[in-house]
Amino acid sequence: MARSRKPEVTVAAPEATQTREGTPRLARTPLWAGWPRRWPEWAPAAAASCGAIYAVIEATWAVTGTTVPFTPHTPYAPMVQLTLAGLALATGVACLATRRRQLDRPGRTAVWGALILTTPVFAMGATGLPAYFVTLAAGAGLESATGLAHVLLSTAFTAVLVLVALSCRRRLAGTCPRCGQGHTGGHDAPLLHPRATTAPRRTRKLAYLLMCGMLPWAGAKTVWTLGGDAFGITAEKWKESNSGGSDTAKALAEAGIDVTVLAAGLGFSLVTGLLYPWGQVFPRWTLLLSGRRVPRLLPLIPAWLTGFGLSVYGVFLVIYAPLAAFGVLPAPEPDTDLGAPLSGTLWLAAFGGTAFGGLGFALLAAARSYAARSRPVCATVGQAAAEPTPTRAKPCDVASGTEADLG
């Protein structure tokens, strides 16, 4: 099957200034104005600062005996909090070491080992962010201020660790630490952003297939809101168990809309935005924003954070439900408020796992495609592509643009 060729796109290089020798040179911006473009330079220091703040807060909670929930019914042990504080400090030191231009092989091994081993640990602490978001959006109130603070600290620390690891990997590969392309000059020039495109058909099919996992779970929730019974749980029992929710949640339930189903609908909208051009350029119905470029990290950050947390939780439920049904793992305690039998509880857990996991992996797949399709390149790359060459060069699939953005 013949491969489709990428369409050739005309590249407009940014404004240039003339040097004494008459060679055009890209205009540079002051340091204070171009700090987003220099994120590979300040990311290690930011990671070290986040690690220090994280360590101080966790150690303070451990010493004072402050309760920080790990699960709704299980708090973090003080020893675990002190261990996390120590890991945060060690990881911050490793991030500062990445600023060195020359690292010997043992140094590179130590730095990469620290980043690879600790980043998933702090990322696990950020998996509860979607649950807090849904709870706050539903108006049900804040269950634990320390729990939310821990999740936000873990999220911020994980984000800067990913930036440090990305820039370090690109430096070791001999490419630009910001855009990942091989070019001369620094990495503080303006960025050229690609044209808005649709995700490949394979990616779209995969995302839609994964989101089909929400249908059984959303169907059961809708049945309860409409007065039916499912999994041995009656609509009356389900409404009684949710009677303590906010007025907004109650009003939606009376209309046959479950809050979690509504949140899943928002996730579906985010997935479609990542797959189609309107997620890169604001559509016409956005009025004043119509035609403007969508900031690249605006959809990517919630997609990455939510997708990671949902996928981990979904995989856990899908694995746990059958193992508990066959007696390999302890069965969950039936919810007395719902009055569900053990079989209904396990089926509900399995369908919840397919829903959360399906939406989470769909977000990750769509975000991966969006990140690749919207990745900007330094203007020096676009200028080189625009200069005529004696031989036929590979077309550069970027469009003009000078907005500062994180590569």
Largest sheet, in brief, is: 2 strands, antiparallel
Number of separate strands: 6
Order of helices and strands: EEHEEHHHHEHHHHHHHEH
User: What spatial form do the alpha-carbon principal axes imply?
Assistant: globular
Low-confidence stretches: 1-33, 384-407
Mean pLDDT: 77
What fraction, in percent, of the residue positions are helical? 55-70%
Q: What topology, given as strand order, has the largest sheet? A: 1-2
Number of helices: 13
Radius of gyration: 25 Å
Q: How far do the termini sit from each other?
A: 34 Å
Beta content: under 5%
* Class computed from helices, strands and strand pairing: mainly alpha
Explain how this protein is built:
It is a single chain. The protein has 407 residues and is mostly helical. It contains 13 helices and six strands. The strands form three sheets. The chain has a two-stranded antiparallel ribbon. Strand 1 (16-18) and strand 2 (24-26) form a beta hairpin. Residues 1-33 and 384-407 have low confidence and may be disordered.
Task: Pick out its properties.
two-stranded antiparallel ribbon, disordered N terminus, 407 residues, two-stranded antiparallel sheet
